[in-house]
Amino acid sequence: MSTQSTVLFDAPGPKARARNAVYTVVTLILAAVGLAVLYLGFNQTLTDRATPLFHPDTWAVNPDGQWAADMWSPFLRAETWTAYVIPGLQNTLTAALTASVLALVFGLVFGIGRLSEHAWIRIPAGAVVEFFRGIPLLILIFFTMALPIVAWQVFDIPTGTFQVTALAAVVTGLTLYNGSVLAEVFRAGILAVPKGQSEAAQAIGMSRNQTMWVVLIPQAVTAMMPAIVAQLVVLLKDSALGYIVAFPELLRSFTLLATRESNVIPAAIVCAVIYIVINLALSRLAIWLERRNSRRGRATAKPVTTEGGPIDPAGSTGTAVETKVQEPLPRTLAEDDGDTSAKKE
To answer: What are the TM regions of this chain, as residue ranges (predicted)?
Structure first.
């Protein structure tokens, strides 16, 4: 253990350990001061106080502050959840799930396209990926919302011909941006598969398309599953940008609630908790999928006797080793001659 640790970094000496202890204490003090300022600031007792800083009344919960019980009481009413939280959560999940499916398809298609042997496929696919990956997501959402205006100014199409909803704009922006990022993830995962896998597949007569879809892509998806889920988590959080185009998602619902109840901090905390719970659920789902894919295709050896029957578990050593029936060795020419001479005698 000590040998491995010294290979990665030099063991700190007495002065370095003392400095690290000082840095730790200073960091804890600064964190405590920051939390205290945050508490007193939203408690409205940091500047508007009639008592000294360390007086108990200064740290008591101010009825007019954001930490008062009345500020949290709206979340105990059913109408708050039915009118604000649940509709916003449904819209957020609808946009995120729709964009996730489309982004995965987009990323898979263009990731494979960038690996094509044909330049007329590889070059346009790379241009599309680099273009949408380099544009901010908010611009994509705004541009999608402005498509009717662009169609009217460029193609002289009347503005009432078609309309782009806020949901369509958010889903389109999330799909194009995150799909471009996922295309690079898929491409990196396919390139990370050992070259011997594709060579072995081609050696048994599989075409390039069969090798890609049967051999390379499943292994690439399994290997890149953490990166894929991390990008989907980013997609879910970026759905909050729909607030700019008046999409009634979760953040906008909590903003309206905070404006109505004047409880900005409690609303922000509850909204953050909901986002954290959803993201943790996605992470757990990714871990489950990764473990499931790692167990898929793993053959379980069944111990058998030389007669073909199962070995008694009480007499086995716990190692699942399959004992094959040994076939009789081929008879040599000398043995055949010996048997013939014996028969003659």
So the answer is: 21-42, 93-113, 134-155, 167-193, 213-236, 264-289
Within 8 A by CB and 6+ apart from 40, the residues are 46, 58, 59
E strand segments, 74-130: none
Q: Which two tokens stand for residue 141?
A: 């959402």
In DSSP terms, which residues pair with 310 in a beta bridge? 304
Within the chain, strands assigned E span none
More confident residue, 29 or 314: 29
* All residues at 6 or more sequence positions from 185 whose CB lies less than 8 Å from its CB, including other chains: 107, 111, 224, 227, 228, 231
pLDDT digit string, tens, across residues 223-238 = 888 889 889 989 999 9
**Statement to judge: residues 113 and 92 lie in one domain:** yes
Residue 37 covered by a domain = yes
Same domain, 22 and 77: no
Which of these three, 274, 295, 316, is where a domain ends?
295
pLDDT tens readout for residues 56-69: 878 888 888 888 88
320 occurs within a structural domain: no
d(Cα 54, Cα 269) in Å, to the nearest integer?
27
- Do 77 and 22 have their domain in common? no
Range of the domain at 34: 8-63
Q: What is the CATH number of the domain that holds 99?
A: 1.10.3720.10
Residue 185 has pLDDT above 70, yes or no: yes
pTM: 0.73
DSSP 258-290: HHHHT-HHHHHHHHHHHHHHHHHHHHHHHHHHH
pLDDT digits (tens, 9 = 90+) for 194-207: 888 888 888 888 88
